[in-house]
């Protein structure tokens, strides 16, 4: 059984999607929680390939970049499609999730007080793409790509759940997305993780905004 370890700050941030994937796939992992004080000392930052976290240890292999880690876990746990075309579609969806995550992170950390309302107003123009992606696959009754869950689904559901905290009504105009978040979140092993104190007590972001 692989020995997985997440090396990250005590936040959901860029690691909750991989936690959701591992929980849903019945895979165990350890948490190496890095405090901001430890991070400021600089040794860990020097070791990190891009000077940033998360890091991920798979036995004696260590990697960085949250989306690369998701793809690594997708390959290792049959969550990367059934053929090269599905894998490319999954990459495309995940890149779209990353685009929205970057906008979310910038608003949260750089423009929360003045930018939150405008961000929420502009959300439908972002979410409509994911609603259409679902509509174009099995009438939105399954996943974003193909007929089995992929790492892009965990990433999208994590990000949508964060947006439901920011703006509880943000999916009211997107029935397929709303049903998708509920459906994926109620997968038994994932539901157990999402009900855990570890998940519930971990702040979404590092600055206390959500
Ligand atoms: N492309 C990378 C981006 C990684 C990243 O932004 N990491 C942040 C943390 S993840 C994140 S969403 N950062 C937003 C702000 C933040 C900073 C520090 C702690 C928590 C959040 C980080 O390591 N910041 C510390 C530093 O750069 O010295 C990835 O996807 O892993």
Automatic annotation (TrEMBL):
The enzyme's main class, written as a single word, is transferase
Question: Which one GO biological process term can you cite for this protein?
Answer: glutathione metabolic process
Q: Does the keyword Iron-sulfur apply?
A: no
Q: Which GO terms describe its cellular component?
A: cytosol; mitochondrion; nucleus
CDD domains from the UniProt entry: GST_C_Pi, GST_N_Pi
Q: Which Pfam families match?
A: GST_C_3, GST_N
Q: Which is one GO molecular function term here?
A: glutathione transferase activity
Matching InterPro entries? Glutathione-S-Trfase_C-like, Glutathione-S-Trfase_C_sf, Glutathione_S-Trfase, Glutathione_S-Trfase_N, GST_C, GST_pi, GST_superfamily, Thioredoxin-like_sf
Domain (GST C-terminal) ranges? 83-204
Ordered alphabetically, the record's keywords are:
Cytoplasm, Mitochondrion, Nucleus, Transferase
What subcellular compartments does it reside in? Cytoplasm; Mitochondrion; Nucleus
Domain GST N-terminal: from-to ranges: 2-81
Indicate yes or no for the key word Thylakoid.
Answer: no
- Give the EC number: 2.5.1.18
| Catalyzed reaction equations | RX + glutathione = an S-substituted glutathione + a halide anion + H(+)
Predominant location: cytoplasm
**Protein function:** Conjugation of reduced glutathione to a wide number of exogenous and endogenous hydrophobic electrophiles.
Protein family (similarity comment):
Belongs to the GST superfamily. Pi family.
The UniProt subunit note reads as follows: Homodimer.
What is the recorded name of this protein? Glutathione S-transferase
What is the source species? Answer: Pyxicephalus adspersus
The top of its lineage is:
Eukaryota, Metazoa, Chordata, Craniata, Vertebrata
């Amino acid at each position: 059984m692989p020995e997985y370890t997440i090396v990250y700050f005590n936040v959901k941030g860029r690691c909750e999607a991989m936690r959701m994937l591992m929980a849903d796939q019945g895979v165990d992992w350890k948490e190496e929680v890095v405090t901001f004080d430890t991070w400021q000392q600089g040794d860990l930052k020097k070791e990190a390939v891009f000077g940033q976290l998360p890091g991920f240890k798979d036995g004696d292999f260590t990697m960085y970049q949250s989306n690369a880690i998701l793809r690594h876990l997708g390959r290792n746990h049959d969550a990367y499609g059934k053929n090269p075309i599905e894998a490319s579609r999954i990459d495309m969806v995940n890149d779209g999730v990353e685009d929205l995550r970057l906008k979310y992170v910038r608003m949260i950390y750089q423009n929360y007080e003045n930018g939150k309302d405008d961000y929420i107003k502009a959300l439908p123009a972002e979410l409509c793409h994911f609603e259409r992606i679902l509509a174009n696959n099995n009438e939105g009754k399954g996943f974003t790509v193909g007929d089995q869950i992929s790492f892009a689904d965990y990433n999208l559901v994590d990000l949508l759940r964060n947006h439901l905290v920011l703006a509880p009504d943000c999916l009211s105009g997107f029935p397929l997305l709303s049903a998708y978040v509920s459906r994926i979140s109620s997968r038994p092993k994932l539901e157990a993780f999402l009900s855990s104190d570890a998940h519930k007590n971990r702040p979404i972001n590092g600055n206390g905004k959500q």
